Amino acid sequence: MTVGTSNFGELLWPGIKSLWGHRYRNYSPLYTQWAEMASSDKAFEKYQGVTGLGLAAVKPQGKSVSFADPLLGFQGLITNVSYALATSVTREMADDDQYGYIRRLPAMLAEAMRKTEETVMHNVLNNGFSSQLAADGLSLFNTAHVTMDGSATFQNTPTVGADLTQTALENAEITISRFVDERGQPIQAVGKVLVVPSEQAFVAEKILKTEYEVDTANNTRNVISGRYRLVVSPYITDTDSWFLTTDVMEGLIFQRRLAAEMNKDGEFTTLNMRFSCFSRFGVASINPRGSYGSPGN
Fold first, then answer.
1. Residue 17 pLDDT > 60, yes or no?
2. What is the mean pLDDT of residues 61-89?
3. Which of 30, 45, 155, 156 has its CA 20 to 30 A from that of 134?
4. How far apart are CA 287 and CA 90, in angstroms?
5. Is 125 helix (H, G, I), strand (E, B) or coil?
6. Domain segments of the chain: what residues?
């Protein structure tokens, strides 16, 4: 639909006190606070998994040393997807707009693209218990992730879904500390950022900012207090789910091919003005050790 004097006639004369609904306060991006940011100059990028060499073996005197071969393992692929949005305005509407609404259309397009990025990246977490896969072909949050050499399994979700509590976070940190590398050896990972939906904001703050055990009369220190950076996000759709990112790289990746690009041109035959916003990026969950998630209970 083209914005014209026939469908936006109210903006052609004085008398309107204020326009509302088309702009709200701009906030800093949320996904950049927990996702790993990467750049790209190709249509797609491959993230190839490789193993280390494992443990050294005892060498008897006079005997040859043992040899070990690295292995080529799971491969992740991030395809850079094109996203675009446009709008069209008649010449007459642009000339006669009394409230500056038309001048704000480029800003509205930019805001739409920013929210698109938030939605697409957050859906990596939202779909992490089902359709979002890690490089090993299993759902991102799974109890049976396998190492590349097949020697061990590990989990990055509780065996039984748990609501956000101090105990659940403690158990999550223990599980994260038990993550193993592609040869089944401990990597001593730690949690970094706690991502929760809006409904869990106050629960999370109580846990992370209370000096002693939460919701008990126990005079026992809360060892989780201050441990994680908190991100509260309305883009998390499951109201009792929660997530931890870890210090493991190549986990949750936002890969940018082209930053949001604004374009404007005039249509010669109609004299309409057209505005568009275009961007290319891809998202993925490569290494499941980069995050831990619970769907709640």
1. no
2. 94
3. 30
4. 49
5. helix
6. 29-46+73-294
